[in-house]
Task: inverse folding
């Protein structure tokens, strides 16, 4: 039996599983009439998502501030599937970016403003990531009741492509390089009159989190870069010309100032983040 640290809803809790470890535990009615300090009825346990690092625990609390628990647990289930099926590890920040993506896509879908994404198909270069993303659509449908079009696979796969890797040990986050990256990007945003406001605060914070982990990804090779770059540059430039221009400024300046080459996936992510910040509509 394990102790409940926090009740999310009747079907999910955060639990202390011993040895200073925590996990999200799901099960039908597992938290009914339960509270902090109660014991988990192991007979009701259906799924367990382990929070194996301090970063993953901190990210969970960050997510719970503004993302529904059903979306959070759906994200954990998708990432957990990737690890169990393909031994596919992701950096902790993937929990934040993927949860945010699922929430925003869900809002647009339910609000009738969802548009199929224009990200190029990279299935040939990234078969495992696309297999995980295809399964993710089924998980989203089962958990959230939303049936996204098949093109959503490309967007979800990109989160795995961009966050693949083992979490660095404590104190190995390249803090100095991360600070330099943040300063470069903030200066370019300021030059383009993009500031953190109440209306875009969540998007701004998530962009800063993406940049925080960029330093740790600089040594990771970007497979298929030569094939991907021309195609997505053309499509994204045509669809989001203003966002693309600002993102390209950031990308080129980082390329010039840093010793490592950035992968083309980073430019695509910059465009997505900038588009959210300035709310640029798709150009037909």
Result:
């Amino acid at each position: 039996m394990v102790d409940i640290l926090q009740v999310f809803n009747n079907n999910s809790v955060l639990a202390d599983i011993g040895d200073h470890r925590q996990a999200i535990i799901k099960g039908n009615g597992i938290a009914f009439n339960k509270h902090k300090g109660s014991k988990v009825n192991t007979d009701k346990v259906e799924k367990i998502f382990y929070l194996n690092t301090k970063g993953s625990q901190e990210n969970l609390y960050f997510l719970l501030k503004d993302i529904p628990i059903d979306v959070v647990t759906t994200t954990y289930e998708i990432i957990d599937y990737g690890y169990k099926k393909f031994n596919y590890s992701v950096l902790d920040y993937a929990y934040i970016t993927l949860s945010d993506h699922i929430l925003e896509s869900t809002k647009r879908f339910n609000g009738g403003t969802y548009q199929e994404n224009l990200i190029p198909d990279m299935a040939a270069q990234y078969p495992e990531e696309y297999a995980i993303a295809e399964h993710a659509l089924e998980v989203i449908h089962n958990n959230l009741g939303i049936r996204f079009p098949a093109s959503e696979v490309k967007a979800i796969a990109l989160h795995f492509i961009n966050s693949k890797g083992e979490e660095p040990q404590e104190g190995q986050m390249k803090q100095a390089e991360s600070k330099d990256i943040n300063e470069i990007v903030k200066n370019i945003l300021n030059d383009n009159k993009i500031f953190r406001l109440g209306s875009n605060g969540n998007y701004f914070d998530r962009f800063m989190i993406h940049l925080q982990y960029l330093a740790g990804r600089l040594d990771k090779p970007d497979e298929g870069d030569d094939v991907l770059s021309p195609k997505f540059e053309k499509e994204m430039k045509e669809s989001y010309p203003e966002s693309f221009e600002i993102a390209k400024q950031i990308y080129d300046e980082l390329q010039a100032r840093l010793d490592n080459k950035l992968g083309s996936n980073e430019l695509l992510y910059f465009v997505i983040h900038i588009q959210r910040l300035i709310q640029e509509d798709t150009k037909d």
